[in-house]
Each structure stands twice: as C-alpha cells, then as structure tokens.
Amino acid sequence: MDFELGHISPAGMQFTELADKHSAEFATTADRHDRENIFPMQNWESMRRSGFLSATVPEELGGMGVRAIHDLVVAINRLARGDGSTAIGAAMHTTAFWYLAKLLRRPPAALGDQRFIVGLRLILRRCARGRVVACVAISEQGTSLGEPRALAAPERDGYRITGRKYFCTNSPAATVFLSSVRIPAGGERDTLGFALIPRETPGVTVVADWDALGMRASGSGAVVFDSCHVPEGLVMPGGPVGALSAEILPLTMTGALVLAGAFLGIAERAQGLVVDALSRRHAASAGPPYARPGVTEIIGENEADLAASRAVISRTAVLLDEHLDPAGEPAVPLAELHELMKEVQSANMVAKHSAIAVVDRALTASGGSGYLTSNPLSRLYRDVRAGLFMQPFSALDAFQYIGRVRLGADLGPDL
Amino acid sequence: MDFELGHISPAGMQFTELADKHSAEFATTADRHDRENIFPMQNWESMRRSGFLSATVPEELGGMGVRAIHDLVVAINRLARGDGSTAIGAAMHTTAFWYLAKLLRRPPAALGDQRFIVGLRLILRRCARGRVVACVAISEQGTSLGEPRALAAPERDGYRITGRKYFCTNSPAATVFLSSVRIPAGGERDTLGFALIPRETPGVTVVADWDALGMRASGSGAVVFDSCHVPEGLVMPGGPVGALSAEILPLTMTGALVLAGAFLGIAERAQGLVVDALSRRHAASAGPPYARPGVTEIIGENEADLAASRAVISRTAVLLDEHLDPAGEPAVPLAELHELMKEVQSANMVAKHSAIAVVDRALTASGGSGYLTSNPLSRLYRDVRAGLFMQPFSALDAFQYIGRVRLGADLGPDL
Amino acid sequence: MDFELGHISPAGMQFTELADKHSAEFATTADRHDRENIFPMQNWESMRRSGFLSATVPEELGGMGVRAIHDLVVAINRLARGDGSTAIGAAMHTTAFWYLAKLLRRPPAALGDQRFIVGLRLILRRCARGRVVACVAISEQGTSLGEPRALAAPERDGYRITGRKYFCTNSPAATVFLSSVRIPAGGERDTLGFALIPRETPGVTVVADWDALGMRASGSGAVVFDSCHVPEGLVMPGGPVGALSAEILPLTMTGALVLAGAFLGIAERAQGLVVDALSRRHAASAGPPYARPGVTEIIGENEADLAASRAVISRTAVLLDEHLDPAGEPAVPLAELHELMKEVQSANMVAKHSAIAVVDRALTASGGSGYLTSNPLSRLYRDVRAGLFMQPFSALDAFQYIGRVRLGADLGPDL
Amino acid sequence: MDFELGHISPAGMQFTELADKHSAEFATTADRHDRENIFPMQNWESMRRSGFLSATVPEELGGMGVRAIHDLVVAINRLARGDGSTAIGAAMHTTAFWYLAKLLRRPPAALGDQRFIVGLRLILRRCARGRVVACVAISEQGTSLGEPRALAAPERDGYRITGRKYFCTNSPAATVFLSSVRIPAGGERDTLGFALIPRETPGVTVVADWDALGMRASGSGAVVFDSCHVPEGLVMPGGPVGALSAEILPLTMTGALVLAGAFLGIAERAQGLVVDALSRRHAASAGPPYARPGVTEIIGENEADLAASRAVISRTAVLLDEHLDPAGEPAVPLAELHELMKEVQSANMVAKHSAIAVVDRALTASGGSGYLTSNPLSRLYRDVRAGLFMQPFSALDAFQYIGRVRLGADLGPDL
C-alpha cells in the first residue's frame, strides 16, 4: 500500500504520469549535474517536448488544462523525487502559467485593457507550443518580497525597467522573466508591479553565477535588467508596495504550496533510498533490517513526518481549490486571503521542517555511507535545506506572519 | 474562516452538532469535576438522553447510523474541546458500538453462530434505547495489550473470567465491560479474546480508585473480575495472544484514531483560550496582542501544528473509511491492515505530540496566568499528557512499530 | 560514581550537608503539602532552627558565612530534590541575604548613609538569630520586572508605599518583603527602588491565595501594600525604571542562577525515581530494566541533559564568583554585567528547558504509573513547569535578551 | 568578555596559543581545500614544524608535555574554528600520542616486555622530532568498533595483518597506522588488539579515495593491509573482542571528548561568522542587527547552546583528568570507567547535536547568503554533520549505551 499523494482531476492524472516519467529520467543524471554544477538544459528540453511545461495552459489554448492546485502540487511532488533542482524550477514555471490561465478566466471587465487579454492568450499559446520558459525573478538583496527596488519607470507605451534580481531559479533556460518591480506613484506610496520581460529584451543579462550548497542544478543565479523597455500590457499592478494585496496573494500562496510539495518529494526520496539500502543490507546478511532499535525508531519517525506532511499539503491544496477557483479571487475578501495564506504558510513550515528532519534521519540511519558523495542522500541533505530560505515567508518570518493573522492583526499595509 | 474538521456524512452532521452542544454544556463544569476528582455522571446521563451515545448504532436498530470513522473522529474532537475526560470515555463507548455495528454488516456466514447475531442486535438495540454504556477494559499491569493475563476459562455454556484491569475509562458509568482475555488453548498458543461482561454479573467490582495527574473526570480506575460467568456468545476470539491479528486491528486502529481526535480537541481549546485572553488583554490596553514577538511566534507555531494535526487525522480517517468499509475487513489482508495501522499510529503520534506542544505553548503565551488553577489551561496541560500512555501504542513503542512495518518486518506473531 | 554538583568552599560544605538533611526531611511531606495545597510552615521552622536560613549571613554576624554563589546554587539544588516549593522560597530568601551581606562588604563610601549600614548589620544579625524570613515581592500584573507600578512616594523620614504584588513566593512565612517600587522623580524618568518592608508594617496584607498547577507549597500568593510607611534606610535606589542597571544586575543574575539550580534538582529527583522504579521492577521480574529500547533511550537522553545542565550551571556560577566577588560589582562595567547576565540566562534556559524535558521523559519511562497522583513524578511534572515563567527572563524574552547582548545592542535604557 | 574554553596547565597554554596561530593560518585555505577536495599536506607540514604534533609527547622526550586532557580538548577546539578537517585529524594524532605517553607512565611491571617500553620511547621521540604522523584506522564496513574483522595472525616474531579499514582520517599524511585487529585465540573468544603499522610496511596501501559531504580535507579514505608483518612489540592486546575493556576505554573516551571539542569549535566559528556579518550589515544600514526578532531569537538560542556545550565538555575533561591521571587507569575499576564513558558520551551527544543546531541556525540567520558556496557557512554546515557518525558511539547507539550504564547493565562482554 502506498500513501503518496494522488491526482484529483483527469488532467491531473496525465500531468502526474508525465511527472513520474520525467522523475525517473532526471534521477539518473541528478547527481552528476549536482557534482558538476551544471544547469540541466536537456531536462527542460525534455519537459518542453513532453508537454509537461504547458500542463497548466488551458486545453483550448493547446495545453493540458490542469486547473487543480492540488494536482499541480502532486506533479511537482513526484518530479522532485527524481531531481529537486528541476522540480523547483518547474514549480515556478507551471505556477506562473497556472496564474496567467486563471487571470484569463476572469470576467473581461476585470481584466481591463483588451491588449492585456490578447497578450495573455498569446503567451499561453506560445507556452503550449513549447516556446516559453518562465523564470520568477523576485528576490533582491536587503529588501523584502513586497518592496522591490527594481524600478519600472513609466515611459511612452510602457515602462523602463532597471534592477538586479537574485535567486532567479531557472534563469539559464528562461525565455521570459516574471519580475517584481516598483512603479513610482508621485508623492503617493509606490505601486508594486509584476512585469513579464522577454529574455531578448535589450538590457537583460542572465549572469549564470549560481554556485550553492544545494539545488545546484536549479540555475538560480542573478539576472540584471538595465533600462529594459517593456510594453504596457506586460506590467500588472499588484497593490501598494510593502503589502500582500488581494492581487498577489493567490499567486504567492499557490506558489508556496507547490514548492512545499517539492520538498516533500525530496524527503520521500530520502526515506525510500534508506529503506531500500537497509533492505539490501538485510538480504545480504543474517539479521532483519529492523533489528537495530535506533534505526527502526527513526525510520518510524520519518513515516509519521511524511504522513503529516502529505496530509497538510493535500488538505491545504483542496482548501485553495475550493476558495480560489473558479475565477474567484476578486471575490475573496483580503482578510480571507490572509486566512488562507496562514494555512498555506502553516503547511509550508510543517512540510519544509519535516522534510529537513526526514532527510537528516535518513542520513543517520544510513550509517556513514550516506555521508559519502557517491550516495545521493548527501545531495538530498543539501538540496532540502533550500526550502527555509524561500519567500514568502522564510523560516525567520513565517510564524510571525501566521501568528499575526491568528491574532487578528491588520495586515493591510504592514507586510 | 475556520479550518476545523467537519463531517462528511449526513448522519455525521447530526452527530457533530450534538457534540458541539454537549461540548458547550460540559465545558461549564469540567474544571470543577477536575478539581473535585468527580466522575460526571450527569454528562453521561445527558449524552444518553440526547442519543449521542447511540450515534454509531445503525438507524434500523434505533441509532443515528453514523458509519464514517471520519465523522466519529470529528464528533469526539468537538466534544473534547469542552471536556477531555468525558470525550475519551465517549470515544471508547462509541467506537465499541461502531465496531459491533460493523460486525453486524458482515455476511452472516462470517459471523458464525446465530446466537451471536441475536446477541449483537440485542445490545445494539439496547444501546439505542440509552440502556448501555460500554467501558473498554484492556490494560493490565506489567503486560502488553495483546497478552492479557485475565483468564477466560471455558466452562459449560460459556467462560469463567478472572482478572484485574486498570485504566478502565468510564467504568463508573459502564453497564458493560469490553475486556481482553486469554483463552487457554491446551498445549497450543493461547487465544486472545474479547469478552462483553455485563456489570451486574456476579464477581464484577468497579474499584473507582481513579486519581491522576489529568483526565480526572474520566473514571479510569480498576475493575476486577472474580470468576465471572459469561455466556459463549459474548466472547469473541481475536487470534493468537501476542499478535495484532486481522480480527482486532480494525477495532484498535479506529479506536486509536478517534482518541487522537480528542487530543486535537484539547489542543484547539488551549489555543482558543489563549488567543481570546490575548485579545481581551489587547482590548483593555493600548498595544496590539501580537506586539510581543515571542508570543506571536508561538501562536504561529501552534497554528501550524494544529493544521498538520487536523490534516493527518482527517486524511487517515478517510483512508480507513475507504479500506475498512463496508463490511470489508475480512477481505483486507493482514499486511495491509498493518500498513493502515502504521498510518493510524503516525497520525496518532503527530496529533498527540503536537497537542502536548500546543498546550505547552499556550501556557507559555499566557504568561504566569495559565499556571494558576483558576485558569482552564492548567487543566488542559495535565489532561493532554494522558495521550502518550495509551495503548496501542504508547510513545515508547509507536515508532518501533511504525518503523518495523515500513521495513517489512513480519509482524504476524511478534507483537 | 556520582556526578552531582558539589561545594567549593568549606562554608559551602556545611550548607550542602544541611541541605541534604532538610531535603530528605521535606521529601516525606512534599506530596501531602502539594495535595492539600498547604504552605509547609514547619519546613521553614526547621530551616530557621538549623541555621540553613542564615547560611549567607557573614560569620562575624552569626551566620554560616557562605559567600560562593556556586555553593548557594548547590545547596538549593540539593534541597529541591526533596521539595521544590520550599527550595524556591529558600533560594529567594538566601539570595536576598547573600546580596545584603555583599552590600556590607562594599567600601563604606559606596554605601552612603551610615544609617543604612547600621540597618543592614541589624537585619543580617536578626537573620542569623533566625528571626527573619525574606520574601521577594517583585511581580505585578501587566508590567515587566523593571517597571513596577507600586509607588514609593517620598514623605518625611521615608516613603509611603502602595501597590499589589503577585507570585510572592514564601509570603506566608515572610517577616519582611523585598519589594520593587517606583520612586517618582519629578519630570525625570522615575527611579526603580527596592524596599524592605517589615510584615508588621501597618497596611501590609498577605493574601495567601496561592492555588496553582505546581509549586503548590511555595505560598506564592499576592501581597498588598496599602500606604505602608517605610523609613529611608530601607529603600535602596536601583537606577532608572525600565533598565537593568549595574545596581540590580548582580542580585538578579545570582537569583536567576540559584533558581536554575532548583530546577536541576527537580530533574535529578525525577530521573532518580524512575531509575529506581525500573530497577525494582527488574528485580521483581526476569528481564533486565534496560531491555526495552525505548526506555533505555530516554533514560540515556536524560543523563545527557542532566550532565549539560549541571555543567552549565556550575561553570556559570564559577564565572559569577570570579567576577562579582569580592565587593566588586561597582567595578564591573555595565556592559560586562550584561555579558555575565547573558551567560546566566543561557544557563537558565538550558537548565529549565532540560529539567522539563527530563521530567517529561521520566514520566514516559514510568509507563502509566507516573501519571497517577500517588506517584511523585506527577507532582514533579507540575512543579518543574514553573521555571519558564520566572523573571527575568521568562521563556518569552530570554533568548531575545541573550541575542541582543551578543549582537552588541545598547541595553542601557531599553529593558 | 569571552567565555571560550581556556587552558588549565602551563603546557596547555603553549599548545593553545599554537592552536590559535595554526587556526588563523589554516582558515585562509579551508574553503579552497574543501572545494577542490584536496588533503592539505602543507597544514600537516606546518604543524610538524611548529611542534604542535608533538604537544602530548613528554618534555623529557622532546615534546611539549601536555598531559591535561582538558588542554588537549581546548587546543583542538581552537584549531577546529579555522579548519575542522585538519582539527579532527590532529585530534586523533595527538590523542594517540597522549595515550602512548600515558602508557609510559605506568609502572614498568604493568608494561611487561622491555622491548615494548623501548619501542614506545622510540616512537614518542620520533614524534617529538616531527617524524611521525599517526592515523587511527578503526572503522570497517558492517561491523562495530569492538569487533574488527582485520586479522592479526600470530607468526614468528610478530603478527601478519590483513584487513581493510574505512574512514581513516589523516591517512594521506600518516607515517603510522594505529589499527584495531582481531587476534585469534584458538577456541576461545578472540582478542581485540591495537597494532601500530608503519606506512612503509610492505602490503600497506593508502587508497586516498575520500570524497564526502563534508570534512573533505580530512583525508578519511580507505587503507588496506595485505599480509603486513608487524613485530610483536607493536601490537597491544585490548581485552576480548566485542567488549569495551579497561584497556581501551581510557583511549576511546579521551578520543571522543577531544573530537567533541572540534565540533564545538565549528559551531563557535559559525556563530562568529554570522554575528560579524549581521554587524557589518548593520553598520552599512540604518537599523540595528537585532531589530528582526527572528534573527535575535536564534542568535540567543545559539549562545545558550554554546554555553552548555563548552561547560559540559570542560567539566567532563576535568573529570577525566582527575580520574585517569596519573598513570592511574589500571586502578580504575571497569564499572567506573563505564561511568566516566557515560559522561563522555553525554558530553559528546550534547556537543555534537548542539553544534549541528548552532550551524543550522547561523545559516538561517544569514538569510540566503549562507547557502552560497562562497560563504564559509555552507562548508561548516556540511563539516559539522560528520560528528554524529563517529565511533564509539554514533547517534544511533550513544543513548542506548548511556541508558544501559545508568540502569546498571552489565556491560562487560556485550558491547
């Protein structure tokens, strides 16, 4: 019996099966990419060809039509078992297109400018034809998520964007950057915006300097925008800077939950590896694998952590699907979005902390062998640690946010 | 928005609403019963009258017809918010009748003796008329769950039962005891059995000596059986002693999960109390309740723990409902029952450990006031600690069991 | 071999031996006092008669002459094994007199008014004759340690004190209250003061309303001061309100460390009780007590926690003895006092958190038996939880304080 | 004020100062050696020249004469701040020579054969002249410490040794291997032995295959002994296989404690790095470094962990110095040695677990920057994880051992 997470929609089934296939495929090279600090361009080529990357594009535009956040989580969870680096990149890309598809389902009145609708459909279609890879370029040095310093200065027919972004997962493969920007508002509080910046835009530089403890094949280097012109339809406003507005909460909460699924996948892989190793050792020896109580104990603790992590991710995904779909987010009041985000961040903290604990115990249970570079556990130990740094919210801020929502704090302008 | 667990069946809705009503009612006296170490007979009277105690009796026999384990968990979860002691007693009673009702859904051939079927229907009907309160009398001193020393010696027309049971929650109110016994098997390994022993049977003594750190109103004292005659139809065999057999796993796993729901309820209550207190303090003062980062942090950690606990209990309950119902347990192979039990024990450990942590943090967040006897938190702190001692499996054994199942140990004869 | 903490001075040997004697004596009644919520006046009578309560009074004034903080910690540690409630009271009393004795060692110029010196000598002599029991009356509702609302309004020949104090451990036996007060300073920032208020002062009411989860025999109820006149020499200024000044840091850091010793003692007692019980069970049965891996594991974890707790308390006590003695605190710059306080709070957090963990594991290892009221573990479980609420700093603030000192924050006026 | 561990003997002062010097020197290349997976031969050359490697050789034989285990711990602690890989190698080398020097202090009668004494003096003198580097070659695959499969078959004038050892820290620089072997004893239980095998012995192969998650510059690869002849005087018997005998406990407990000091050093370094980085960030910005409560909190938790770790290591070292010196170990009964080993393992677990926690928190406090390869924290995170695998006892067995000693288990033949 297997208690892993499973799809809840037909489109999700196709997506999940594809995820399993890619997962097995990417697993064979994950250690090498890690060791050589290489961005696995061929993984992205493979996901482009298979249609994996257009899973969240509506069927009528040529995609797989996955709408359920739950199934997006599940597919990324499966993929991460084979290659965490590729999975977090794929998570960001597919969540971005899930969001764009969701925008398109809004009443036309809510979308405003017709050019925007046309642009949206165009990029979704291009994604369905395997022509687009999105990179979410949000992080900067020394600021928080909602207060970018990257400036989108209005100019004729659009904006001129200048700034430097870090931790741009996926940037080597990206054809377009979804970047947070600050739109000056005269004397008023500046506006937070999200710009789609095609890679070929003059002034874009992908630095490709990613060299980190883990997630080494994720290509999470810096991207520089130097006076990049972007047409008006490609910049979406997202409320005042410094606030988690109703505009950006649905995207950020979905993104956070999908990423939590990736870290669960890494933990599941670690547990699977060590249980298999113990069983092989068992088969080769006299005694049973569960004879050493210390080993049995932590394998048991891992199962409990995995059960809780799966359950909280799945329940929260169902919650989001109920409340955010269909086309519903303008109708969800801000306070309720914060309540949902509180649940997402709770799931996020549970899943990421327990993923770290599970991989750590798997390492312990391996005896010294998991500490060797030749053992994939030594990679998983490094990869899984990335989760707690991710925005919003890192481990330093998440419980403060959750606690404030629970205590009824007015979160409007303060985040 | 509330993320509490909710019913999934119509009968469950009625059960849950009744649970909420009783919970509010019992909450008003819980502290007094605790302080005076009194068994709250009037709570049981109230649950008898309302039909709460016959919730799991089939409708055609006069009960409420709750079949979903999920909804049994939810109702007990709600009840425990008001009074943990009464909730764990009600959990054991309703689970016992859930199990008896489930037995009745088996193909008659599987039930054997017609007298047994008649007896079952009789006790279920009597329960529906509010005439039965069951007490699960399992624990003994110095033995494990599956190896009782209480002896059921076969005699004419039945058995003669002698033994001493401890931690018999609910015994002051009980009209019948569901007791584990050892049936001698000649030279063979003895058989584990479960006997229904009516309270009026000569030789039954309810010692009523319960005086403990917490769960003081649960009446969990000793019960002595001194040569009690029980007719044959009231003793069910449950496989060889020392093993968790296919006969007893469905009952024990359901019981364990329902009890986990009770501990979640205690934790929810503690979090609710301290958030309310902080809000009142807030209303009475200048600053917001979330101003002190240490307080906000642990309120946030509690939310995450509650989210995980709710999710893992709910997901596991759905799993059990899928696999154990309807009438299906003879069809579930033993190995799969152990897999399910592994998930139940995982949920159990997560829920109980996090309930203890949540109440502890609530106490910390209360400042010194939660340490005073006048504050219900000081009772919850004692009540919630009971969970880890419960069988099967206590905190000392649960991860060993889970780990052994995961590692593929042959658990047939060894537990 | 025993690795418990031992005295480092000859006077400390006498103190420690007396502590062991009283510990054994008080252990016999601790459970009864807890159950009946009685303040053990006879324990205090016994400590008065034996000279235990004048241990920190200089020899030349008739006391035992214990100067080493280390040995004060050790004696209280031993006492707490027998009765935690009495130990925390004795800790506060003896630390208060340790501090008064220390004041007397200052150069006369630093002490100012001759009347103050005369008063000091008088109260120390009276303590040596067994005529004084001090109660530290610091806590108030809704304020922090350094910002009392109790007012000491200057009047002719002294002050008029009005306020209500909570958690006044020891108040039923007290003959004098050491109380924090606020001395108005005109338009300036008010001054924090410490007043010695004799119990017989008109306006003093000992409410004796202590009823709590644990430490039930500590008599930690409320004390009310209603326009109590106190002569000038009995009020010592302690710097501006809201700050931990150089005046009050030596007393508060010593007090905190001595109390940490008490919680270590409770943990040692719990570990001793459960190891003895397991050994008895072992003697009565076939198998060895360490046969169950879960039990052995947590007994081992407890030993490690106890070793760390003993070591950090002992090392920190030696540090304080080196830096605060003799007569030295005016010479220690404020920044260094904060560094020392950081170490004390570190020891404090380690000792209190691990004491809670140790008692909790002892309870688990006991099986269900530790949960019964008849088992002293059930009292220790409640007593040990008091530590985290104590000032300065409770668990909510301690790491913030430690972190701020380490990060070089200017703590002068901000606490 | 600095609360780091300091020397307690004059020779220890010289050793510690040298350690500080080497630490600063090695720190400049540690990241490069890690990245390039290089064994730092020049570090060893430098320690050879400075006399660091002969610190534990008696003065009369040309060494520094450090006898205090406490100071051996302190020097290695300091060295590890600069380079953990070199420190664990130096720990093993200096502990080995500490032990040989200790053997020489025994009464000649206890040492037996005069050739053995001559051999001992010779190797100690050679070490003092910088001609010897020892490698402790103990670990094998699939066996425990006390049950080597490497065979020392008696032959004329000595033994023929054959076996394969893993995790041989320091092997690239070693001139001699201290290896555990099994000496056949006819029908009796085999004897555990320790052989000194010069590197130039025919049949010795240093495989140099070390490639691991961390401690990459420690050269901990495999060493193969293929029918190596070793003269009789270089093989010391150590009691029956499978037991921790009185012969080997003093060496193993000292070795374990010295290594614990190394992991403390790594943790101190991590805390220092992140506090410095936060201060620099502070200096470059408006706000204070302690403004973010999440950061301040975990910096505070780290201080508490470091305080406990320093204290328990220091107190345990003093304990060992008191009981094992001088020349005393034959006089210490086996049961007492196990008591001491229990304390060492307690210190070991506290120090290693808290070192891992401290580095982890430092990483969290760094924000994303500590996750980058360019930040030494990312190396420390990998290095510090090695501690829990080390023998005896790894994290899987340590608490079982401690618990068994505390519960009075007869450990003679069973380990």
What does it look like?
4 copies of one chain form a homotetramer. Chain A has 415 residues and is of the alpha+beta class. The first copy, chain A, has 3 domains: 123 residues, Butyryl-Coa Dehydrogenase, subunit A, domain 1; 106 residues, Butyryl-CoA Dehydrogenase, subunit A, domain 2 (Beta Barrel); 158 residues, Butyryl-CoA Dehydrogenase, subunit A, domain 3 (Up-down Bundle). In chain A, a hairpin with a 2-residue loop joins strand 2 and strand 3. The relative contact order of chain A is 0.12. Chains in contact: A-B, A-C, A-D, B-C, B-D, C-D.
Give the helices and strands of chain A as they follow along the chain: HHHHHHEEEEEEEEHHHHH
Strand content of chain A: 5-15%
Stated plainly, the CATH topology of the largest domain in chain A is called Butyryl-CoA Dehydrogenase, subunit A, domain 3
The greatest interface between two protein chains, and residues involved on each side, is: A-B, 53 and 52 residues
CATH homologous superfamily designation of the largest domain in chain A: Butyryl-CoA Dehydrogenase, subunit A, domain 3
Distance between the termini of chain A: 44 Å
Strands in their spatial order, largest beta sheet of chain A: 1-4-5-8
- Percentage of residues in helical conformation of chain A: 40-55%
Rg of chain A to the nearest angstrom? 21 Å
Report the major sheet of chain A. Answer: 4 strands, mixed
Query: Any idea of the CATH class of the largest domain in chain A?
Result: Mainly Alpha
Oligomer: homotetramer
* Total of DSSP H or I helical runs spanning 4+ residues of chain A: 11
CATH architecture grouping of the largest domain in chain A: Up-down Bundle
Note poorly predicted spans of chain A.
none
Count the beta strands of chain A.
Answer: 8
Given helix and strand content, the structural type of chain A is: alpha+beta
**Shape descriptor of chain A:** globular
Q: Mean of residue pLDDT of chain A?
A: 93
- Count up the domains of chain A: 3
